[in-house]
Amino acid sequence: MSKKPSESNFSSFQEAIKGVKPLKNDRIDLYAHQKNTRPFKDNNNYNEDDESVYLSDAQESKNVTGEEFLFFARSGLQLKTQKHLRQGKITIDDHLDLHGLSISEARQTLLEFISFAQKQQIRCIRLVHGKGYRSHSEQPILKNKVNSWLRQHPDILAFSSAQPKDGGTGALYLMIKS
C-alpha cells in the first residue's frame, strides 16, 4: 500500500522550496586533469649533451601495441611501491602530454621535463604518449620510443601504464629519482 501525499503536505513543501534555484550540474568531474598550464623549461643548468645519451634509439626494446600494458621498475624499489604505482595510488605531482610531437621534439621535451622535475623535487608524474591510433604503421611509434627511452634513463625509478581514468595504456605513471 503506497501513501499518497496529501494536498496540505504538497503545498507546504512547495512553500518551503519557494525561491530555491535548481543546480545546473550537481556532478563533479573526477577525471578532469589540468592542461599543461605552466612552462617547465629551465635552461639555466640544462645541457642537452649530458642527457641525450640516456634516450638513445640504439637500444630499442620490443615493440608493443597501443593496448599493451607497460611496466618497468629498477631493482631495489619496494614491491608495495610498485603495486601502488600500477594501481595509480601514488599522488601525481605533475603531468606532461607528448601528443602531436615529433620523435625529436618528444625526446627533447621529455629530457627537459625530467630535469625540471628533479629540480622541483617532483616524484611522480603522468606522462601521456597516446596509443598510436593515427600512426601510419601498425605500431604506436611514440609509445614504443618512450618505453625504450625511460628504461635507459638512470633517474627513472619505475613506470607503469596508467589506470583508465588517467589515460589507460595511452599514458604512464612515472616515478623519478629525487
Describe how the helices and strands are arranged.
Elements: H1 7-16, H2 48-51, E1 71-73, H3 79-87, E2 94-97, H4 103-119, E3 124-128, H5 141-152, E4 156-161, E5 171-176
Parallel strand pairs: 2-3
Antiparallel strand pairs: 1-4, 3-5, 4-5
Please characterize this protein's 3D structure.
- With 178 residues, the protein is an alpha+beta fold.
- It has a domain at 70-178: Ribosomal Protein S8, Chain: A, domain 1 (2-Layer Sandwich).
- 29% of the residues lie in helices and 13% in strands.
- It is built from five helices and five strands; from the N terminus they run ααβαβαβαββ.
- The protein has a five-stranded mixed sheet, sandwiched between helices.
- Strand 2, helix 4 (103-119) and strand 3 (124-128) form a beta-alpha-beta unit.
- The radius of gyration is 23 Å and the shape is elongated.
What is the name of the CATH class of the domain at 70-178? Answer: Alpha Beta
Average pLDDT works out at: 81
The string of secondary-structure elements, in order, is HHEHEHEHEE
How much of the sequence is in beta strands? 5-15%
Radius of gyration: 23 Å
